[in-house]
Each structure stands twice: as C-alpha cells, then as structure tokens.
Write a sequence for this structure.
C-alpha cells in the first residue's frame, strides 16, 4: 500500500507540473510560476527543464557550457524567451528546448558540411597539380651536427612533374612505427624554394621544423623502425598565391566536427522521442 501511495503521489506531482503554465506577464509572475512548476517536477526533470530554458532563452545548442550555463530558473535573464515560453507547461518547454538545440546543431552540420564540400571541390580543381608533385625517399631522422641541440629532420626528394612553377610547398607529415595505431607525430611543415621549383625540376630537401613544437625530439625519435609519410596539401605558384584558400587541414577538422555534431544531434533526437 505504501508503494502504491508513493506511486500515486509521484504521478500527481508529475501531472501538476505538466498542468502548470509559465506566466511571463511580469518578472514577479514569472518567478512565481516558474517556482511552482520547478517545485512540482520530479528531480530527474528539473535539470532537463533548466537546460531547456537556457537553450530557448539564449538560442544555444549546448546549455551546459558558456556564460549562461549556470543561470537559475528564476533568473530574470531567462525572460529573454518570454514570447516563446509564455503559457507553456514544463513538458512543452522541455520539448521546445530539444527542438531548439537540434535545429541549431542541424545548422552547424550544414555549414560545416558545405565548407568541406567547398574545400574538396577546390582540391579537385587542382588535382592534376597535386598528383604530379612527387615525394620520394621520405625519412625522419635526428641531426646531431648542432652541438647545442639535436634537430629533428625530414629528408626527402621532391619532383615537380606538374606544369605549374612552385614557389612554396605545404606538407602534412606523419611519423609512424609499423604495428602502432597512433602516430608519434602528425603535423604540418612548409618550405619556400629559393628561385622556385620549375616544371620538371627536382630537389633533395632536409627540412628542420620547429624543434619546440610537435616535431620536438622525444624518447621515440631514434627508433630504427620510424616511417615518415608526407602529403602535399597546398602549393604557392610563381605569383606567391596559394592554390587552395584557407588551411588545407580544415577539411579533416571539419569532417571530424560534422561527425561529432551529428552524434550530439542524434542523442538529442532520442531524448526528444522519449518525451
């Protein structure tokens, strides 16, 4: 009987919360109505309700971060959403909160996906150039000729088989060991050719990137099984203008961003469906 009474009381509280409506006619009326709704909500719904209010009032996809994430339900700042929440119940607002967040994430996904498409289209435009810049005999090693500091060095031969003169090359470099899933280092490097690299020309390069950054010498740096992979991600022509506008690494970061945004959106969709 006691369990039954508790269940009935819980249902009664839930129904009361669902029935109460927000009154935004004045700050006082708002505070009173919001307190009444919050007091009647089950504990597991209170935070969900607060996050929904923040998402709606400040039009944010993630109400758990940012300056307004700590806003309380009685904060007058939440009256910024007055026209959207007036006369609505807790359930209405929780649903609207999820819909708001999903809509914002959808917009971010679309924007990031379009950016990836633009960058991909640019790269396809210059595919013949990139495909005809050959990197051979790539090797990562430590140069000990400097008595003050060991220098990480990227040695390779580059040949310009394209029809475009090159003044600067941008490379994405990765150092791996066979059998390891995580690279020792993954970073970019660029080099300006004195006098350029004309069509049909080759050069042997030994580049020494910033030894205090990602390429810095570590315990792994003298392993005998290290493999260096280099990928051409951008070039500058004879006029000093880069063929691809923006950071070529943006493609990878934007693709990863889309995956994360889609994951968040799908999680919110499930929560909305369970309302």
């Amino acid at each position: 009987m006691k369990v039954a009474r508790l269940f009935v009381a819980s249902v009664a509280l839930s129904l009361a919360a669902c029935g109460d409506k927000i009154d935004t006619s004045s700050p006082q009326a708002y505070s009173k109505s919001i307190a009444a709704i919050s007091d009647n909500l089950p504990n597991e719904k209170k935070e969900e309700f607060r996050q929904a209010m923040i998402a709606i009032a400040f039009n944010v996809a993630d109400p758990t971060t940012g300056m307004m994430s700590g806003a309380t339900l009685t904060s007058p700042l939440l009256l910024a959403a007055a026209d959207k929440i007036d006369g609505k119940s807790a359930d209405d607002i929780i649903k609207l909160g999820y819909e708001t967040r999903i809509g914002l994430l959808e917009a971010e996904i679309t924007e990031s996906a379009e950016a990836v498409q633009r960058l991909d289209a640019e790269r396809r435009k210059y595919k013949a150039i990139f495909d005809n810049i050959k990197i051979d005999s790539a090797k990562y090693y430590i140069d000990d000729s400097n008595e003050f500091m060991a220098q990480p060095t990227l040695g390779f031969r580059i040949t310009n088989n394209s029809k475009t003169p090159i003044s600067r090359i941008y490379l994405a470099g990765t150092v791996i060991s066979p059998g390891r899933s995580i690279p020792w280092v993954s970073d970019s490097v660029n080099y300006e050719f004195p006098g350029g690299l004309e069509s049909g020309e080759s050069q042997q390069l030994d580049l020494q990137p910033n030894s205090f950054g990602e390429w810095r010498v570590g315990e792994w740096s003298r392993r005998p099984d290290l493999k260096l992979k280099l990928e051409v991600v951008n070039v500058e022509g004879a006029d000093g203008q880069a063929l691809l506008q923006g950071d070529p690494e943006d493609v990878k970061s934007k693709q990863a961003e889309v995956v994360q945004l889609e994951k968040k959106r799908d999680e919110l969709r499930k929560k909305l469906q369970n309302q």
Observations:
- Confidence is low (pLDDT under 50) at residues 1-18.
- Residues 122 and 244 are 6 Å apart (CA to CA).
- The chain has two domains: 2-120+259-273, 128-239.
